[in-house]
Amino acid sequence: MTAVGIDAVEIWTGKLRLDLPGTFAPAEGEDPEKYTKGLGLETSSFPDAYEDIVTMGANAAKRLIDRKGLDPQEIGRIDVATESAFDNSKPVSTYIAGCLEQVYDDDFHHANKGERKFACLAGTQAIDDAYNWIRAGRNRGRAALVVATDTALYARGDPGEATQGAGAVAMLVTEDPSVVELSTEQGYGSADETDFLKPNQQFPSVDGKRSMQVYLARMREALTDFESVAWDAHPDDFAYTPFHTPFPGMVRKAGLLGYRHMIRDTEIEDALEGRIGRQPREEAHEDREAYEEAIRGYMDELKGTEEYRSWYGDVIGPTLDISRRVGNWYTGSVHLARMSALRHAADNDVDLAGRKLLVASYGSGAQAEIHAETVVDGWREEVEATNLDDQLARRYDLSYEEYEGVHDRHNHDMDVEMEEFTRPDGEFVFTGWGRMSERKYDYVE
Ligand code: HMG
User: Fold this and answer.
1) Which of 138, 128, 131 is nearest to 361 (CA)?
2) Hey, how many other C-beta atoms are within 10 angstroms of the C-beta on 45?
3) Quick one: which of 134, 206, 309, 371 is 20 to 30 A from 101 by CA?
């Protein structure tokens, strides 16, 4: 069977940054260590006055198309994953294609375009759609462009304000890919939940603490489901495990849970027995509550072991580097985690080709999806060709008052003019509204 997977990735960050421990925490009367030690965040990205989900998505896509030397006719599908759309009918993918058609001679009139929604999970689902389209033989040899783009804003004063972010990840899905091959096996954990939702409103209604519990519960289900069709996962099976990362502290919790699950009945559990005992078994406890209490105690002990700390440092830590510096990008977040891991491997000269990743995506509402990916030859060149470090270094550093203005500017219920903080340079920009309230864009040389 021909390999199908991700052939190229480009990232576009919002051009502004907010220093969370240095600027946001003091203005909010909070301890900066809540950010550095608790949530694991340093800065979040925000869009400048002329940026939005379309410009960020189109700019990431243009970088990808230019770098791969593609002609629009070679792209047969454009799917946008977002939970920040501003139209209930016209998909963001048409806007992005319209932007790209301003700069290329050819057009995307024969590409199938759509928009995927399931909170942060939609980026992964759009990759699935592309994979299935290629596997079904409907692609006529063409590639699929998947763009995950979001402006993750919470209402002012909501605890979620600590975990905002904005940016886009463009991915090309093809046969014989150059970055990762996707596994056919997938696991799902899905339930009707009201932890985080946006019932026809821009900012989420969110029960933060509950959303974290739901994230962990659905991840556990998805891992068990993945194992039922793949194999019993072992911590040594994977070079990295990129998770959906609303903030790194969330992944710290998920990583511990995953590790406990994977070491059960293995030589690692045996080796730890003398120090922290064996994992509690449900049948040995009077009721579920007693069992859960025992599990919490075991996890507290496990967290401190050298085995766990070293696995976490090697397999999870490297996936969090980008997220720590940009915040939550919703649909793009797990794809940033993958890139973060690959960049770490490239920087440290790790030979990754043939190694596996366990990719754990999540969307509130709620559903987790877990699958494996195999890194393929060519990954290093692809990763080294991106310019994320330059983009991150060039971001404008906002004061708290400026941040308040940026939040208002991107609030759909407010009509706020704002001077731009950066100058557009070879990119798409938002220019205003047309006669049917459509958004308008230009390419600035
Ligand atoms: P909060 O009330 O602002 O923060 O809510 P907190 O007081 O719980 O502190 C956060 C952590 O920092 C805690 O760590 C504190 O102990 C620690 P934990 O106990 O959980 O390990 N902390 C400190 N550590 C050291 N020194 C200090 C200090 N102070 C505190 N001085 C919350 C945080 C994440 C709930 C909030 O920001 C929120 O509601 N965020 C939005 C929801 C969210 O991100 N949920 C995550 C799971 S759901 C998900 O991932 C889906 C999502 O991406 C949406 C989608 O799918 O579309 C959100």
Assistant:
1) 128
2) 27
3) 134
Structure tokens at 341: 């891991």
Distance set, CA 171 to CA 89, 121, 385, 441 (Å)? 24, 15, 14, 22
- Enumerate residues 6+ apart whose C-beta is below 8 A from 238: 315, 355, 356, 357, 358, 372
Q: Which among 120, 194, 203, 165 has a CA at the least distance from the CA of 412? A: 203
How high does pLDDT run on average in the chain? 98
Q: Please report, as a single letter, which amino acid is at residue 101.
A: E
Minimal-distance CA residue to ligand 1 atom 12: 38
* Per-residue pLDDT tens over the stretch 28-73: 999 999 999 999 999 999 999 999 999 999 999 999 999 999 999 9
Active-site residues: which are they?
83, 120, 244
Q: Measured from the CB, is residue 162 less than 6 Å from ligand 1?
A: yes
In short, whether 204's Cβ falls inside 6 Å of ligand 1 is: no
- What lies within 8 Å, CB to CB, of 261 at 6+ separation is 220, 223, 224, 233
pLDDT digits (tens, 9 = 90+) for 279-304: 999 999 999 999 999 999 999 999 99
Q: What is the pLDDT of residues 221-231, one digit of tens each?
A: 999 999 999 99
Give the phi and the psi of residue 58 in degrees, each rounded to 5. Answer: -65, -35
pLDDT attached to residue 18: 98
Distance from the CA of 119 to the center of ligand 1, in angstroms?
18
**Of 336, 48, 54, 47, which Cα lies nearest the Cα of 169?**
336
Mean pLDDT to the nearest integer, 197-214: 98
CA angle 24/30/319 to nearest 5° reads 65
Read off the pTM. Answer: 0.98
The distance from CA 288 to its chain's CA centroid, rounded to whole angstroms, is: 33
Tell me how far the alpha carbon of residue 248 lies from the centroid of ligand 1, in angstroms. 10
Per-residue pLDDT tens digits for 123-150 = 999 999 999 999 999 999 999 999 999 9
Q: What domains are there in the chain, each with its CATH number? A: 4-444 (3.40.47.10)
281 alpha carbon, distance to own chain's centre = 34
Distance between CA 107 and CA 74 in Å, rounded?
Answer: 10
> Closest Cα to atom 48, ligand 1: which residue?
211
User: In this model, does residue 1 exceed pLDDT 90?
Assistant: no
